[in-house]
Automatic annotation (TrEMBL):
InterPro entries: SAM-dependent_MTases_sf (IPR029063). GO terms for biological process: methylation. Keywords: Methyltransferase, Transferase. This is SAM-dependent methyltransferase. GO terms for molecular function: methyltransferase activity. Gene3D superfamilies: Vaccinia Virus protein VP39 (3.40.50.150). PANTHER family: PUTATIVE (AFU_ORTHOLOGUE AFUA_6G01830)-RELATED (PTHR43167:SF1). It holds the Pfam family Methyltransf_24. Coiled coil: none annotated.
Amino acid sequence: MDTDHPLVAEATARARAEAFAYSCDPVTGRLLAVLAARVPPSGHVLEIGTGLGVGTAWIVSGLLPRTDVTVITVERDAARSARAAVGDWPDFVDFRVGEVPPLGLGPFDLIFADAAAGKHEGLEATIAALAPRGTLVVDDMRPMPDWPADFAERQHGVRRALFAHPELVAAELADGSGVILATRRG
């Protein structure tokens, strides 16, 4: 895996230039690349919360040189999505603006829930969009002292829901920002 992939470097530079503080950290990014590399032939990947494309770039770095996959990345902020879409992205990456998860799409072999829309507001819909044996990645799960109380409670609610869900097998990794991996039984 190339941790200096040009798309990762470009997206990271874009996020830094805009002082965008919500991109996934490099530990999570490397994990995304590893998980993307195991997506089956003709697989489908969903990223919820494009931001400025850092997570998307890590996912793509794990997929290339393959072209048999589909990556859909969804962002609520149209201007931010347009800025993320700038660059030399492979044709299999589809930048979308709207609510998530996109209804009627899926199932997905890998879902990265990097925004509230995929974990706080729509967790059940996100889980429903997972293919059997598909993997859900939820980041920013390591409690931080500066978290507002309401955010901390929402994150704890996500944690409880993932570990208690009868269709999921979940594990929490404390590295980086903290990640919960959950695989749908099937």
